[in-house]
Amino acid sequence: MIHVLILRDRQPGHFNQAEGMALAVARLGPVEARRLEIRPARWARDDLRKLIMRRWGRDPDFWLRLIYGIDLASVEKPDIIVASGRPTIAAGMLLSRHFAVPFVVSGGIDGYDAKAIALNIVSSPRQAGDAGAAYAPIPSTVDPDAYPPPRALADIASLDGASLALLVGGSAYRREFPPEEWEALLAFVPAVAQRYGVKWRVTTSRRTPDDISDRFEALAASGAITEFVDYRTAGPGSVRALFGADAVVVTEDSLSMLAEGLAARRPVIALKSRVVHKHYANEIIAGMAGESLAILPMASVTPGPFADTLIRLRPPAEDARDILARALAPLLGQSVPETRRPS
After folding, report:
1. What is the rounded CA–CA span in Å between residue 119 and residue 203?
2. Residues 294, 208: one domain?
3. Among candidate residues 291, 270, 290, 292, the one with its CA nearest the CA of residue 281
4. 166, 310 in Cβ contact below 8 A?
5. For residues 133 and 107, is the Cβ–Cβ distance under 8 A?
6. Range of the domain at 287
7. Among candidate residues 163, 251, 249, the one with its CA nearest the CA of residue 206
8. What is the block-wise mean pLDDT of the chain (343 residues), using blocks of 10 residues?
9. 240/202 Cα distance (integer angstroms)
10. Which InterPro entries does the protein's record reference (predicted)?
């Protein structure tokens, strides 16, 4: 039995990555997962936690109590600790030091001593060669085995009757969608359905403007959309069923949705805004592009180029959990799982 301690902060995009790493460990053998909620004290901001870990963080018991209110006597020794999100890094380093077990972080660790972290899961190819890093897909909790295999979209004729999931986000940090881009998307969706006979399954998110959600709801009422999931009433987690579509289209503000579409072993198209500022996420998205993911401009994409791009894409050949498991196996002294190809 492999005992995994999952550190969870408040952000779903972070704790789902930690949960995803635990699922990857489960590819290596039976797992018992325990979870620890990580809530730093208000005074213990990120820069101060970094300073503490660089200069004074030698006593795990003292600092875990002071920064996080964690009593080590209440934490059972794990075989591995996994986490994502800056609030969890100092906690993981302290727990790792106390228990003398490996600590794995998915995402950025800037400002912390990389030597105190057994493995850093990175998704930017620019960081692939860094010491202590493993280049792998962003971990997620999506299980591709929960869905039937997607229809092969090998030519234009195969699009007739194919289901396409559209995951609609909204403006986010360093990413904005001006009104004209929403207008373009709202015209594009019914045009593709009419021209190629695809069946759109659309969901909105907490970032989607209310008026845009209302207009997608109207498209569903008109029959241009086969299925509409309104986040305002459905809430978090409502997107999961849509990953069973034959392909996934995502507004590029959501790294997690792009990663989850690929984790579901679907071809993915990212719709990019023209208002994208320089940011680390750009590197990750560019690294995702390839035979399974393409990036198209939301403002100007038309049905023809979209369809031509879609039929060139292929579902990911390997389960993302197996790629992660290969990176984690040496830390646990486990054998690497055999690659599982789609049937």
Report:
1. 35
2. yes
3. 270
4. no
5. no
6. 151-310
7. 251
8. 96 92 96 97 95 92 97 96 96 97 94 93 88 93 94 96 94 79 96 97 91 94 93 77 95 88 96 75 82 95 96 95 95 77 46
9. 12
10. Elm1-like
